[in-house]
Design brief:
It holds the Pfam family Pyr_redox_2. It comes from Bifidobacterium moraviense. The chain has 448 residues and is α/β, with parallel strands linked by helices. It contains eleven helices and 25 strands.
Length: 448
């Protein structure tokens, strides 16, 4: 009988364990998780802080009992201390009893996820500097935010931006700090982020951009975030500057990127036989760039986890890659994106063209309509679509899914311009705005 060890059980681990047992119900699957919960949807923390969650218990979509009913042998509150890939053994510690036990496995699945980036700067270990990653972090932020009058959020990516938005709506004085010159700089280009910054300012959020945090200093009533350009005080601070793979257990035993992400092929296989990895611990193939990359998203983790079960005995189903499709709601603005931004391509030394278009999302004869800002990036040689970004007060989130499929299918801007999109005045104009920006891009491409 084959024995599988699954280390870590959030998104990738949960779906990997289920998929393995679905494909091989007679196998023995040991799941090791250091926490007492699993499958926590951390993307809901900001919404929970802002009292937009009906019941925090619903932020878990599975449980140890559910996986146990699937047939998994669950080891909750168990910390894996070491792994010997060559010997196919691991040592784990029961965090309740302190007992350490050795286990053998035939196949290893590494779904250890990611950890928050915590740079070694003075004062960062203060209990007034909070992280935002797991259930415990969410509970702590929720408690602190209840009576807070001021907060400094360090990091203006998705997590930091959402926290700043929700806290400001709750009447908290928020300062948002980031080393980049723009909010959401890794997700959207300037034509969109400029509108988001105006929304933050109009809601009283102080933006401290283009400055790097250099120290945290406790004050009598809270914490001060010191940057290379200023000093900002709050009752507490939240650090949200990114994530790194939590893969120290496998260091030196399998191929990794410099940041520690385990390199996997299209079947989720690591560089050593019988070792698989998925989710935030692993690389993904980023279709817009045609390269392996590190993109920690729950959507990637779920799809990769599901593929572990399909491929753990033999290569059956290849990973189709990712476009890093995502969306966020900030105040009354909906933002959605897929693929490469113009600036993101430049950082990767990839030359792209960019087409922008702003027009109302539905006909002017409607009682109400509102503009949508569209940005399409495309290859200047092949004219293939490489990315799309959208912002509006209307719900334009579906546009990112359209662009995602276009990228994955290697559509040119001309192809996208000629897709059969629906027209109905409640939803769009005779020429859907995705098609409209693609038409503009196709016209530019023909003149190139």
């Amino acid at each position: 009988m084959t024995t599988v060890a699954v280390i870590g059980c959030t998104h990738a681990g949960t779906f990997a364990a289920q998929s393995i047992l679905r494909e091989h119900p007679d196998w023995t699957v040991h799941v090791f998780e250091r926490n007492d919960t699993l499958s926590f949807l951390s993307c809901g923390i900001a919404l929970w802080v802002g009292d937009n969650v009906s019941d925090p218990a619903k932020m878990f979509y599975s449980s140890p009992e559910t996986l146990g009913n699937f047939g998994a042998t669950m080891h909750m509150r168990t910390d894996v201390l070491s792994v010997d890939v060559a010997a196919k053994t691991l040592r784990a510690k029961d965090l309740e009893t302190g007992e350490e036990t050795d286990y053998s496995f035939d196949k290893l699945v590494v779904t250890t996820g990611s950890k928050p980036v915590v740079p070694p700067i003075p004062g960062i270990d203060s209990d007034r500097v909070m992280l935002c990653k797991n259930w415990e972090h969410g509970q702590a932020i929720k408690r602190r935010a209840r009576n807070a009058k001021s907060v400094v959020v360090v990091g203006a990516g998705y997590i930091g931006a959402e926290l700043a938005e929700q806290l400001s709506l709750a009447g908290v004085k928020v300062t948002l700090v980031d080393a980049a010159e723009r909010v959401l700089a890794n997700n959207f280009d300037g034509a969109i982020t400029a509108q988001v910054e105006k929304a933050f300012i109009s809601h009283g959020v102080r933006l401290a951009l283009d400055q790097k945090a250099t120290a945290f200093e406790e004050t009598e009533d809270g914490i001060a975030v010191v940057t290379d350009k200023g000093r900002y005080e709050g009752d507490f601070a939240i650090l949200a500057i990114g994530f790194l793979p939590a893969t120290d257990l496998l260091s030196g035993q399998v191929d990794m990127l410099p940041n520690g992400a385990i390199v996997v092929d299209e079947y989720m296989r690591a560089s050593v036989p019988d070792v698989f990895a998925a989710g935030d611990a692993a690389t993904v193939f980023f279709n817009p760039s045609g390269r392996y990359d590190y993109i920690p998203l729950a959507t990637n983790a779920v799809r990769q986890g599901l593929l572990v079960g399909r491929n753990i005995e033999k290569a059956t189903r290849a990973y189709m890659g990712t476009q890093a499709t995502s969306a966020v709601q900030l105040y009354d603005l909906s933002l959605a994106a897929s693929g490469l931004t113009f600036e993101g391509a430049r950082r990767r030394c990839i030359e792209l063209c960019q087409t922008e278009l702003t027009e109302n999302y539905r006909p002017d004869f409607m009682v109400s309509t509102t503009p949508v800002t569209c940005i399409l990036t495309w290859d200047p040689v092949t004219f293939e679509v490489k990315g799309g970004q959208f912002l509006s007060k209307a719900d334009i989130s579906g546009a990112a899914n359209v662009v995602s499929m276009a990228i994955q299918s290697h559509y040119t801007v001309e192809d996208l311009a000629n897709v059969d999109f629906l027209f109905q005045p409640n939803f769009d104009k005779p020429i859907y705005y995705v098609g409209a920006v693609a038409m503009k891009a196709a016209s530019q491409a023909r003149k190139a």
